[in-house]
Amino acid sequence: MSRALKLAAVAGAALLTRRALRGRIARSPLWPLPALETPVSGHSPRRWLPALIVSRTEPADGVLMLTLESAELPPWSPGAHVDVQLPSGLVRQYSLCGDPADAGRYTIAVRLVEDGRGGSREAHAQLTEGAELPVRPPRNRFVLEPSSSYLFVAGGIGITPVLPMLRAATAAGADWTLLYGGRSRASMPFLAELEPYGSRVTVTPQDEAGLPDLAALTAAGPDTLVYCCGPAPLMAAVEAAAPPGTPVHLERFTATPAAGTSRPFTVELHRSGRTIEVAAEESALAAVRRELPDTPYSCEQGFCGTCQHRVLAGGVDHRDTLLTDREREDSMLLCVSRAQDDHLVLDL
Fold first, then answer.
1. Which of 7, 95, 172, 175 stands 20 to 30 A from 309 (CA)?
2. Who contacts 82 (Cβ-Cβ below 8 Å, separation ≥6)?
């Protein structure tokens, strides 16, 4: 190659590099720091943080409690949850149920679901004391808002995000009560931790007393905030029992059911040069994986972000609980979101 051609090649490469840097800096003026909508203690919400399992106990039948430690774990507030990466690579979400004042320490509890998607079985079988468990920084979509009065309702493992809320409400001097239901006392974790609260807590094992009595909801004052976490039927019952205008905050174990009926649509895979049909009863992820079986995914419920992909054209019906408004401008989670109309173009 002649000297002139070499110089031209070097100059061309430098020009491309400058253009790439200008574009990257425009997207994030603090580059190379991550462009976060809401910084989480200096950590990217997508970054995996190393943590060590320092304790494994079983606070109830079928419930595994893990205590994790790491100097890199950011602070958190009651109601927060974390993504954990299981040894197989599966990503699952668990509420933090320890004390936010314990810096560098997280506590989670996992209910064994034999007929579930496999994450809880893997956690119970393989997560042992001394093992590493990567976690992402906490996210909180179940924030405890300031109030002088609360009514908490928990069903089974739904007690996990509520437990730190009780501590916070007590420390703030708020008036609160808790209705806690479960299949049996043996299956209900943290009963011993609740005993010091005395009559503020009503424990209702189904095999002894049936379902929790939600009559307290009708007597709640207009300034009482209601927080509920548990199985879908319990949350539906709480919403139905709450007087009109009563604020009800819910923490769901699964994605929120979509309103209305899903329609079929087509997806054009731009780089692959293929167009695929997405049936009304299937996800875009399932349809894409028929053509591109190596497309990564994990939770399939719009929580973890593994299946996030760039959208080149078409409106998106976003049904996830993860992406920021900025991210939704040009990307989607294939596992739950769909086309607003009849067609999408993906950068795949």
1. 95
2. 93, 94, 96, 106, 108, 135, 136, 137, 138, 139
The span from the CA of 72 to the CA of 106, in Å, is 11
What percentage of the chain reaches a pLDDT higher than 70? 84
Residues 6+ away with beta carbon under 8 Å from 90 = 118, 119, 122, 298, 299
Q: 275-295: per-residue pLDDT in tens? A: 999 999 999 999 999 999 988
As a whole number of angstroms, the distance between CA 193 and CA 176 comes to 16
Q: Within 10 A of 219 (CB to CB), how many other CB atoms are there?
A: 9
CB atoms within 10 A of CB 115: 5
Q: C-alpha distances in angstroms, 291 versus 107, 111, 151, 315?
A: 40, 35, 49, 22
Between CA 199 and CA 184 the distance in angstroms is: 19
Q: What is the pTM of this model?
A: 0.74
Per residue in 51-72, pLDDT (tens digit) is 999 999 999 999 999 999 999 9
